[in-house]
Amino acid sequence: MFDAIEGIKSLDALDRKILDLLQMEAQLSNAELARRVNLSPPATHARVKRLENEGFIDRHVVVLNSRKLGIDLLCFIFVSTNIHQKEQLEQLESAMNSMPEILECHCLTGEYDYFLKVANRNREELEKFIRKLNLLPGINRIQTSLSLREIKFTTALPINND
């Protein structure tokens, strides 16, 4: 099993700087990245490949503008289930995983079993989604909250907070 503490200790300051720059600007060219970290392009490329191979870089993505795409309703949904068997939980999680409206799904401790971050175009789509969610076996309670406005959004992890 990967030890997170040992993993982060294996990163030097240059690795952390590379990771920080890439998570803020994933489309940086290798030459520009090398210039910003004051390293040769081949050495920078080798470091990035090593960070990818070691799993520090999970994937390269583009973050889309939801409003430009007409997706204007962000919701947070808490879900309780009455399921206790592993196979049934795996089926429920697989079903939720296949729903494109669900941006994030977290298994929780406490009053609710799951927390969903859901994107819809409007209230009508949200209503259809909640109906679809309610049809999943084992769901016994749903609580939905709508986001009125976004205060902070980032995908950047705090890796340079020493």
The strand line-up of the biggest sheet is: 2-3-1-4
Helix content: 25-40%
Overall domain count: 2
- Let me know the number of strands: 4
CATH architecture of the largest domain: 2-Layer Sandwich
How does the major sheet shape up? 4 strands, antiparallel
Unreliable residue runs = none
SSE succession: HHHHEHEEHE
Secondary structural class: alpha+beta
Q: How is this fold's topology laid out?
A:
Elements: H1 4-9, H2 13-24, H3 30-37, H4 41-53, E1 73-81, H5 86-97, E2 102-107, E3 114-120, H6 123-134, E4 139-146
What does this structure look like?
Helices cover 39% and strands 19% of the residues. With 162 residues, it is α+β, with helices and mostly antiparallel strands. It has 2 domains: 9-53, Arc Repressor Mutant, subunit A (Orthogonal Bundle); 73-146, 2-Layer Sandwich (Alpha-Beta Plaits).
For this entry, give a set of tags.
162 residues; alpha+beta; Arc Repressor Mutant, subunit A; Alpha-Beta Plaits; 6 helices; elongated
Summary of the model, kept short:
With 162 residues, this protein is an alpha+beta fold. It has helices at residues 4-9, 13-24, 30-37, 41-53, 86-97, 123-134, and strands spanning 73-81, 102-107, 114-120, 139-146.
